[in-house]
Amino acid sequence: MPTRIAGFRSIDVLIVTVTAVLYSISWPTLPLTHDVSGPLLPIVGALAAFPFALIRINPALGWAVSALSALVIPVAFDRVAGYDYPWQVVHILVLLSLLFAVALRSPASLLLLAWLASMLVFFAYMPGSDGVGWSVGLTAVVVFGLLIRWLVLSRRQLAQQEEVSELERTRRTVLEEKAKIARDLHDVVAHHMSMVVVQAQSAPYRLDDVSVAAAQEFESIGATAREALNEIRGMLGVLRSDGQQWQDAPAPNALDLERTLEASRKAGMEVRWTVTGPVESVAETTGLALYRILQESLSNAARHAPEAAVTVDITVGPSTVVMTVVNAPSPNTSVGRTAGSDTGGHGIAGMRDRARAAHGRLHATALPDGGFEVAVHVPNGMPISTASGVRNDLA
């Protein structure tokens, strides 16, 4: 990139310098080529040299000024005896340079006009066969300019394509790395969750003197682990590189909310809930968001307010679904935190993202008594179809 000198690019300084040199040549040598009176010498010399100053800013305008002066000068001023050209050499060089710049930068229609007009000017004033030779020269200048222009454009497009390709390669590498991490996560978590299920189901048979309550607790642990395992498989199983396809299961929806509450109660949480309105009318996207938010809310309550009572209220309206999850303060004073305390995790932020994805809003706040409340409002939409609304009973 050209450097800047006192606010100007170095190329601009160079153009101004060349223009000054051309003018310093055209003015003193003008009496040797044309019969021009003294007061007009600087003006005619400027018409020959100054259009070069526009070669970068506006080459088409510079060419127009130079071509127009080339039409006027041979008519207004006689040539000196022994000089065969209608213009000074400086004027011819400037006109050719500006025509080359037009070929490099101007639209095709303007270039065609400049090329034809330049040839007509040379045909009109150049004697005999010189006009034909100069026309060929003008054509060569235009063709060379077009070749340079196409070369620059092709290299620029190639550079842009290489940049896009590099970005695409980087993006593909990131995606492949994410897929690898997801596959590893799936394999590790699925393995350990499977072991939990096996141990929970076989515990009553492997251990002596297992009470009925303990057996039921093991069964509840196994059911929860199986549900988590199936959800992990549904989300990450498709990323396996060996081409295996996990059996598809319906995505959780509003019909699974009560089942989640029942599972939490079986796991030992004190949960009370009320459901008002037709749950089957909740849209699939809305139901999935509510399901995930309820899962996270119950997990937070169990983690940060163990043994505290949790109250869930779900109201399904014709256009809006409202769900509130309120947990009382933990009776275990050693915990010292509520479900909404900042633990460095992303639970509440994730719930807000879920609500926004369903075009709703979520409000989470600590209560004066030490409890915590999560309230979500999401719009309702198309009802769950019979096919997609089947309960995903994995227990």
Global mean pLDDT: 81
Structural class: alpha+beta
**CATH superfamily caption of the domain at 254-379:** Histidine kinase-like ATPase, C-terminal domain
Assign a percent range to the helix content.
55-70%
First-last Cα distance: 68 Å
Rounded to an integer in angstroms, the radius of gyration calculated over CA atoms is 42 Å
How much beta, percentage-wise? 5-15%
Protein name: histidine kinase
Organism: Rhodococcus navarretei
Catalytic activity: ATP + protein L-histidine = ADP + protein N-phospho-L-histidine
Domain Signal transduction histidine kinase subgroup 3 dimerisation and phosphoacceptor: 177-242
Nutshell version of this structure?
With 395 residues, this protein is an alpha+beta fold. 57% of the residues lie in helices and 10% in strands.
Can you offer a commentary on this structure?
The protein has helices at 10-29, 41-49, 59-76, 89-105, 108-125, 129-206, 212-236, 257-266, 284-304, 347-357; strands at residues 4-5, 8-9, 270-276, 309-316, 320-327, 361-366, 372-379. With 395 residues, it is an alpha+beta fold. Among the domains are: 4-127, no CATH class; 254-379, Histidine kinase-like ATPase, C-terminal domain (Heat Shock Protein 90, 2-Layer Sandwich), CATH 3.30.565.10. The longest helix has 78 residues, at 129-206. It starts with a strand and ends in a 16-residue tail after the last strand. It is an enzyme of class 2 (transferase). It comes from Rhodococcus navarretei. One of its GO terms (molecular function) is kinase activity.
Question: What is this structure's SSE topology?
Answer:
Elements: E1 4-5, E2 8-9, H1 10-29, H2 41-49, H3 59-76, H4 89-105, H5 108-125, H6 129-206, H7 212-236, H8 257-266, E3 270-276, H9 284-304, E4 309-316, E5 320-327, H10 347-357, E6 361-366, E7 372-379
Parallel strand pairs: 3-4
Antiparallel strand pairs: 1-2, 4-5, 5-7, 6-7
Helix pairs in contact: 1-2, 2-3, 3-4, 3-5, 4-6, 5-6, 6-7, 9-10
